[in-house]
Amino acid sequence: MAQTAMTMTMAMLLMALTPICFSKITNGGYLYPQFYDQSCPQANDIVHFIVARAVANEPHMAASLLRLHFHDCFVKGCDASILLDSGGSRSVISEKGSVPNSNSVRGFEIIDEIKAALETACPQTVSCADILALAARDSTVLSGGPSWEVPVGRRDSLGASLRGSNHNIPAPNNTFQTILTKFKLVGLDVIDLVALSGSHTIGNARCTNFRQRLYNQKGKEHTDQLFAARLRANCPQSGGDQNLFFLDSGTPMKFDNGYYKNLMDSKGVLSSDQILFTENQETMEIVKEYAGNEELFFQQFVKSMVKMGNISPLTGYRGQIRKTCRNVVG
């Protein structure tokens, strides 16, 4: 009798849990903040300590680490493919050489340092993909932005996609519709587009990424002319491709809603930023809302970051846990 009752109880429990698990799997993988609580309880602390030290040494690193997570997730999902070097047993062609990444993305040595520390504490347990997600969160917090619990449990990819990196990452000179399409292709909507673009409240842009709008008539129409003159002073029509400019000159190191205020004042550095206020009525209204309510921006940014972090993660037996983030195991 007791055996029958126990069997029935277990059956009912399994029936109750099955829809939840199935839902998680069909949404791209079962990620949850407590994934390493037993296998590597120090994981969050280790990542935070190393990111905090890196940002203290170089405040610009916060934006760089946040950007690594973006550029990873838009190519094959959040699987740390962006970290792989070319070569190896699988003849990887690295994404680091793509147009959006070459001479642009950085912070790889910080990810390597985090991985080495985690391998010492918990060998082959914490994925490089999860390190990117955790480092992005900590970079945001250390810059004055919101915090959130990062769902983890991702595994690392066995390869990279140079073509995907060249075609899937939104580019500074893309049209509004092209950018929105690239977001929709990975399951993100127009609200996510505006909220995630707010990460440009910190970081720099290279002259080569916004020169075009400084010297054509349409760009001039949508740019504050005194602001444009300051940009042109160090971004000539030719040369100076790698010259850097703050994306938010008002509070360049602080994660706040200054980015949206800049757009309303026609002081967006990148065309892909300014068009959020000039090319679409819906995004214009969202920009106004975030410019006037920083807390609203923070709340949506957190939601959109978690949503982006769940783009096609490798879970279960798919992928692997790399020993080093730059090389596939085996």
Description of the structure:
With 330 residues, the chain is an all-alpha fold. Helices cover 51% and strands 2% of the residues. The protein is built from 15 helices and two strands. It has a two-stranded antiparallel ribbon.
Could you give a quick summary of the protein structure above?
Helices cover 51% and strands 2% of the residues. By secondary structure, it is an all-alpha fold. The chain is globular, with a radius of gyration of 21 Å.
Shape verdict: globular
| Count of alpha and pi helical runs | 15
Major pleated sheet: 2 strands, antiparallel
Distance between the termini: 52 Å
Structural class: mainly alpha
SSE blueprint and pairings:
Layout: H1 2-26, H2 43-57, H3 61-73, H4 108-121, H5 128-142, H6 162-168, H7 176-185, H8 190-197, E1 204-206, H9 211-214, H10 217-221, H11 225-233, E2 244-246, H12 258-264, H13 271-278, H14 281-292, H15 294-309
Antiparallel strand pairs: 1-2
What distinguishing features does this structure have?
mainly alpha; disordered N terminus
